[in-house]
UniProtKB/TrEMBL annotation:
Tagged with keyword Ribonucleoprotein: no
Name of protein: 4-hydroxy-2-oxovalerate aldolase
Species of provenance: Imhoffiella purpurea
Source organism superkingdom: Bacteria
Pfam families membership: HMGL-like
């Protein structure tokens, strides 16, 4: 038996993406103050995090500004008001926005990378939207952005659909293909199978595999660790797990696990204490019985979110009876 402990180490090629503002914004329609976004940005810089997903590049027609905050659209003026003349070479942090297929005016909304603080566009799509996703990836790449492909709700589609998507993404310039557990349904064995499927299909393309885990079964951190052990070099997390429904893998847990000496924990704890924890008084997220139930049933958490916002949020039995009756 080896006298070394290989898990107490780090891979310098492994990059962390904090998606607190983008994913957490799904809880409050991205109605964050500039001070909040600035604090998360500064924490990501000071902590040595590699990427910060600051919001969406989604359509104003679909998400009107009178209902949704600026981080649903990431207009260039809003970005620069908060991050100024952000320079990834000086800060070590790349800024990211997500563009949804079917919800983004990507042909006109995304400016050339040389004119934006953003470095990366993550293209999110469902299997039936893969043709548009390929066009979006090629378009953003042509504008000078690093791009990624995020196939959503992978637990809810067939093997043939996954294969079709991977075949379509393989020749694109996307640098990363992300395993996205949208419903928080996957267990370790399924992470293993998907990782092997993705790597086999994308072999020789130079693409990295990423992981974006949701916490409905309280397995987001465990599944992220499993993906890292298998070889994932692009991993997502949010501060204090802040995100829609049951939330996400916790950034503070992930940084502690990675053992990379470049990461500084104190800025992360500070922003959690001063900005994330106070949101608990007004916003609901994190593991609870309704989110656990939708995770076990491989369902979108929208029904649990609606229940938690209703008159009897802690009537877990009532929610269980309702969703089971609808199956």
């Amino acid at each position: 038996m080896s006298d070394k402990a290989p898990w107490i180490t780090f891979r310098p090629e492994l990059k962390v993406l904090d998606c607190t503002v983008r994913d957490g914004g799904l809880v409050n329609a991205h109605q964050f103050s500039d001070a909040f976004v600035s604090a998360v940005y500064r924490a990501c810089v000071d902590a040595g995090i590699d990427y910060m997903e600051i919001g969406y590049k989604n359509s104003v027609k679909t998400f009107p500004k009178e209902k949704f905050g600026p981080w649903r659209h990431c207009d260039e003026a809003d970005l620069r008001r908060v991050v100024g003349d952000h320079d990834p070479e000086k800060t070590g942090l790349k800024l990211v926005a997500m563009a949804d297929a079917g919800k983004s005016d990507w042909e006109t909304q995304i400016v050339p990378a040389a004119e934006s603080p953003l470095s990366t566009i993550r293209v999110a799509f469902y299997a039936h939207q893969v043709s548009e996703a390929v066009d979006m990836i090629n378009h953003a790449h042509g504008l000078g952005y690093e791009t990624t492909a995020n196939l959503m709700a992978v637990s809810n589609i067939t093997e043939e659909e996954i294969d079709t998507v991977l075949d379509a993404i393989a020749p694109t310039p996307a640098t990363t293909m992300v395993i996205v557990d949208s419903f928080g349904y996957l267990y370790r064995e399924q992470i293993d199978r998907l990782y092997k499927k993705y790597t086999t299909a994308l072999q020789g393309t130079g693409k990295e595999i990423g992981i974006h885990a949701h916490n409905n079964l309280q397995l987001a951190f465990a599944n992220t660790i499993e993906a890292i052990i298998l070889g994932c070099n692009r991993v997502d997390a949010t501060l204090f797990g802040f995100g829609r429904g049951a939330g996400n893998c916790h950034t503070e847990l992930l940084l502690g696990f990675l053992r990379n000496p470049k990461f500084e924990m104190r800025p992360v704890i500070e922003v959690i204490q001063n900005y994330i924890q106070p949101l608990r008084k007004e916003l609901d997220w994190g593991p609870s019985i309704p989110y656990n139930i939708t995770g076990q049933l491989n369902q979108h958490p929208r029904s649990a979110i609606e229940w938690r916002e209703g008159a009897t949020p802690d009537d877990f039995l009532g929610f269980y009876d309702k969703v089971v009756a609808e199956i």
